[in-house]
Design goal:
The chain is α/β, with parallel strands linked by helices. The protein is built from nine helices and 14 strands. The longest helix is centred in the first third of the chain and has 13 residues. The relative contact order is 0.19.
Length: 277
């Protein structure tokens, strides 16, 4: 593929750009090279801005899509900051408390949870949790615990160890809330992420594309998770990481190797992104 004009490249973080929160130096160098060739590169992650691995933005990016599309910024300009509506936010908190979940409310500026949730997270995850997205340390460094969460503003929720399966929680919360299984612990029915069903990574990408007056066919999206499905389908070229869920692979146009073998270096070459736009 030889790009005729500048491309917009959107990179998922965990399992794509980084491995267990650590970015391979070869990936950093590849991003610099792609940007030097005249293309724009963005991080596009399910993590909230407060949960970004320390220093990950230092390499230089043209913007950020965070909280799976709720937060969108380009060159320092904020395009979107979508949160749960206040009535729904209060309902989510009440349902999670009512089902004894260990949960954090994810906002761009920090994470918020009930008193004592830090100890529960340590017990459930451990400080060295083998998790491709976050261990407990990622949560704890940004966590603020509050006695009253009823007025807290947030974009999405991560929860563990609820006393009811996700199907029951969604039944109580209604059609405005969606669910993604947890990759943090094995008890997927009782742990996961809650999000607004009409917000996803593709919505964030579209906001960037329109802001820059770019064509959809010039969008390249690379990811490995279920929350990457919409962006892979939306992009002019969708790239899945090998070993991804079959649904993710089916949504992609091509496949790249993972960060453990510096997979983006070869992927960018195959996409023609090192050539000057």
């Amino acid at each position: 593929m030889s790009p005729a004009r500048s491309k917009l490249v959107f990179l998922d973080i965990d399992g794509t750009y980084a491995e267990h929160g650590v970015v391979p130096p070869a990936h950093e160098a590849a991003v610099r090279r792609v940007r030097a060739a005249g293309h724009r590169v963005f991080l596009c992650t399910g993590r909230s801005k407060a949960l970004l691995p320390p220093g990950i933005l230092d390499v230089g990016f043209d913007g950020l899509v965070a909280s799976a599309g709720c937060w969108v910024e380009v060159d320092g300009t904020l395009l979107a900051d979508t949160r749960f509506p206040p009535d729904l936010a209060q309902e989510v908190v009440a349902v999670l408390l009512g089902h004894d979940a260990a949960f954090v409310l994810e906002a761009p500026d920090g994470l918020y949870g009930p008193l004592g949730v830090d100890d529960r997270l340590r017990a459930l995850l451990g400080t060295d949790a083998d998790d491709e997205r976050h261990g407990s340390d990622d949560f704890l460094r940004a966590l603020q615990m509050l006695d009253d969460l009823s007025g807290t503003s947030f974009a999405k929720v991560t929860y563990l160890a609820a006393t009811a399966p996700w199907t029951e929680l969604l039944r109580l919360l209604g059609p405005r809330v969606g669910f993604v299984p947890s990759s943090i612990v094995e008890a997927h029915d009782f742990a996961g992420e809650l999000y607004l069903v009409d917000v996803h990574k593709a919505r964030g990408i579209e906001a960037v594309q329109r802001h820059l007056a770019a064509e959809r066919e010039d969008v390249i999206a690379i990811g490995d998770g279920i929350n990457d499905l919409e962006m892979l389908e939306y992009a002019g070229v969708g790239v899945a990481i090998e070993g991804s869920d079959d649904r993710v692979l089916a949504a992609a146009d091509t496949v790249a190797r993972g960060p453990h073998v510096d997979g983006l270096v070869a992927a960018f070459e195959e996409l023609g992104l090192y050539r000057t736009a």
